[in-house]
Design a protein that fits this description.
Blueprint lengths: L4 H15 L3 H18 L5 H7 L5 H14 L5 H10 L3 H14 L2 H7 L5 H10 L5 H14 L5 H7 L9 H17 L5 H5 L7 H14 L5 H7 L5 H14 L5 H6 L6 H13 L6 H10 L6 H17 L5 H5 L6 H14 L5 H6 L7 H14 L2 H12 L3 H5 L1 H9 L6 H8 L5 H14 L5 H10 L6 H10 L4 H11 L5 H14 L17 H8 L4 E9 L2 E7 L5 H13 L7 E5 L3 E4 L27 E4 L11 E4 L12 E7 L1 H6 L6 E11 L6
Antiparallel strand pairs: 1-2, 1-8, 2-7, 3-4, 4-6, 5-6, 5-7
Helix pairs in contact: 1-33, 2-4, 2-33, 4-6, 5-6, 5-8, 6-9, 8-9, 9-11, 11-13, 13-15, 14-15, 15-17, 17-19, 18-19, 19-21, 21-23, 23-24, 23-26, 24-26, 26-28, 27-28, 28-30, 29-30, 29-31, 30-32, 31-32
């Protein structure tokens, strides 16, 4: 629910009076608001931005650079390159580097249909020699996001040596280098990372282990074995994960020992690692620990039990089937993991259905797990049951229809096309999305006309179905697809127009370069000035759950629109009685979905506000299904997640109740939310 524009404007004007702002400060607030509006509309208007990049106030230059990075249009590259080369202010230069990395991010370019700019790449390589360590680290981060492996030699030459990392600021910057190197995934970088494995700061040691988890480089095995006994639990956790990713069967005994580690997070990652080894050598240790957890109902035990069950499914060892079957009547995390695990172990075998007879889905999550299991089993009997579920009047089955279509659409059977075409007419846009996605994979020429008709007829406020239909249509020859793609350039939704423009560029080989135009915003122009400044109070949102209260301090200066959207939804009661539908120990908890299937939202999308806040333990981020698709779903990091940095909007951090977040289980509920402004501030947004 949108907060009334008049209320925010009154707050802004009252704050101006209370703080006795000078006229130039009021004008600066208006200018900052105008920048925010252009950012929200995704308008890279250089007639507007170019003068701001030369503004006398470095805060304005920095803010304009960030906005251009978020908008992401390549035409902003030349002025940003000039800013990087010529601006005397350190903070402005490092933001120019960050913005370049956002525009040249490989995923962003692929999603937009643009090509990487060699001048931007060269400028970032040059920035590795900047006089500022901050600029150098941000240049490394940007090069990692670009994904060009040719940058590795320059990165290694400029990377700080272990003896230079003497304080927390330096080690935090070193983390940006490690993240860049694992994104590029070149073995030449491994010696430089290994040199940090004995650094006295555990924040670097766990990132070394994380590097090997991300790259799967087997040369780190010996170092990881040593890190398993590190005094810091976070280092041991990541060492477990990395050893599992290397898939060395000889590590099974060592990892099984870690199932008894005093830290619950280490036990979780040890179980996952044993599952990732891909060898039944891990089965005995997992079964022993599973037996020891029997009857324990505390959240750490419940989560570990579910992780062990999932790991046994990954191993696909029939020796575990009897133990897993016992969990089917238990319900909750272990039951949903067990039914999927048994499907993996008994894929295609009729024995699975005998064991699954005791599984009766009682929640939406358990129904989706049953659908997933049937899709994995992939037998004629499984397909028959999925089709029966699709026609079932059971409300849980109806809510799982999108998952049923996804499961059936991944197979091959005689009436599949007819089924998918029927699903293309379903009233649920998520069901239609899955049907379109499956039809896209099949590329049956007879499906073009139904896909085109469905796209032209779709008027749902959610663009999910239209985006999938566009992707399906775009796979046909340009002679057929181009008229449909051009029709979609008139869609009301910015995301649909952006996707249509991308497909047109690809279909024409770049000969046609249509622009999506500005995004339609939900706010009046008068509101942006209030959002763009800190003429407000520090704001905390309190989330009351059945596991305790979680207090979140919003990053109003880093993500003003996202933070205000979250606060407005909380104050309106939107989150009341919703569940935490996704719980991944040592990773995140996620909630805020009114559909309770990870596909829902408030009925609108908000633009991403990517910023330089790292995803640490307790960071709150906006869940996405692609750029600029945020709404109401949020996640709370239970551990640092550097691979999320620069890809998701961090809009707050937990300042109280992180232990309650640790205790959250799937289907736990948000009992109520409220926000409080508790201390007045006056700061300009960076």
């Amino acid at each position: 629910m949108k907060k009334p524009a008049c209320l925010l404007l009154c707050v802004f004007l009252a704050a101006c009076i209370q703080t006795k702002l000078e006229p130039e400060e009021v004008e600066r607030a208006k200018l900052s608001g105008r920048i925010l509006q252009m950012e929200d509309e995704r308008r890279a208007d250089l007639d507007f931005f170019s003068p701001l990049l030369e503004h006398t106030d470095p805060r304005i230059r920095r803010r304009a650079a960030l906005a251009l990075g978020r908008i992401g249009h390549p035409k902003a590259l030349p002025p940003l390159l000039r800013l990087l080369r010529l601006d005397p202010d350190l903070d402005v230069r490092q933001m120019a580097v960050f913005a370049l990395g956002e525009i040249e991010d490989r995923a962003t370019l692929e999603a937009s249909g643009w090509n990487s700019d060699p001048q931007a790449y060269a400028a970032l390589i040059e920035a590795l020699r900047d006089s500022s360590a901050t600029v150098r680290a941000r240049a490394a981060e940007a090069l990692g996001k670009m994904g060009n492996p040719g940058a590795v030699p320059a990165l290694l030459e400029a990377m700080p040596r272990p003896e230079q990392l003497r304080d927390r600021g330096a080690t935090e910057q070193a983390g940006l280098w490690i993240t860049a190197l694992f994104r590029l995934n070149q073995r030449a970088a491994t010696p430089a990372v290994l040199a940090l494995a004995r650094h006295p700061d555990p924040e670097l040691r766990w990132q070394v282990a994380n590097y090997f988890y991300r790259t799967r480089d087997p040369s780190g095995a010996e170092v990881l074995e040593g890190l398993l006994n590190d005094w810091h639990p976070r280092v041991r956790r990541h060492a477990c994960r990395a050893l599992g990713a290397l898939q060395d069967p000889s590590a099974s005994a060592t990892l099984a020992d870690k199932l008894e580690d005093p830290d619950p997070g280490v036990r979780i990652d040890a179980a996952r690692a044993l599952g990732n080894l891909g060898t039944p050598a891990g089965t005995p240790g997992l079964l022993r620990k599973l037996s020891a957890l029997e009857g324990k109902a505390d959240p750490p035990s419940v989560k570990l039990r579910a992780e062990i069950v999932q790991a046994l499914g990954e191993l696909r060892d029939p020796a575990a089937a009897d133990a897993l079957t016992r969990f089917l009547r238990e319900g909750g995390m272990a039951a949903t993991a067990a039914i999927v695990a048994l499907a993996k172990i008994g894929s295609g075998q009729p024995e699975f259905f005998r064991r699954a007879a005791g599984f009766q889905p009682r929640t939406d999550g358990e129904m989706r797990a049953w659908v997933t299991a049937l899709g994995i089993h992939a037998s004629d009997e499984a397909r028959k049951r999925l089709r029966e579920l699709y026609q079932s009047p059971d409300e849980r089955a109806k809510r799982a229809r999108f998952a049923i279509v996804s499961a059936l659409g991944s197979g091959r059977w005689a009436e599949l096309d007819a089924f998918l075409l029927e699903a293309l007419r379903d009233p649920d846009p998520i069901v239609r999305r899955e049907a379109a996605t499956a039809l896209s994979r099949r590329q049956n020429s007879a499906s073009f006309q139904p896909l085109q008709e469905a796209l032209r007829a779709d008027r749902d406020h959610l663009p999910d179905a239209r985006l999938a239909l566009l992707a399906a249509v775009a796979r046909f020859p340009p002679s057929r697809s181009l008229p449909v793609l051009q029709f979609s350039m008139n869609d009301d939704d910015y995301l649909v127009r952006t996707a249509a423009a991308r497909w047109i560029r690809q279909a024409t080989g770049g000969n046609e370069r249509p622009e999506a135009g500005p995004a339609r915003t939900r706010m009046d122009k008068s509101v942006y000035a209030a959002l763009a400044t800190q003429l407000r109070y520090e704001t905390v949102v309190r989330i009351r759950t059945n596991r305790g209260e979680i207090e979140i301090l919003l990053y109003l200066e880093d993500a003003p629109m996202t933070a205000d959207n979250f606060r407005s939804l909380a104050d309106s009661g939107f989150y009341d009685n919703l569940t935490f539908l996704r719980v991944v120990p040592n990773f995140v908890i996620q909630g805020g979905d009114p559909r309770n299937d990870m596909e829902g939202g408030p009925g609108y999308s908000i633009r991403c506000e990517i910023n330089q806040r790292p995803f640490l333990r307790g960071t709150v981020g906006m869940a996405l299904s692609g750029k600029d698709t945020g709404g109401s779903q949020f996640f709370i990091c239970l551990e640092p997640q550097p691979h999320l940095d620069g890809g998701y909007t961090a809009f707050g951090r937990v300042i109280g109740g992180i232990e309650a977040a640790d205790r959250i289980l799937p289907e736990d509920r948000i009992l109520g939310t409220e926000s409080e402004a508790f201390r007045h501030l006056y700061q300009w947004a960076p």
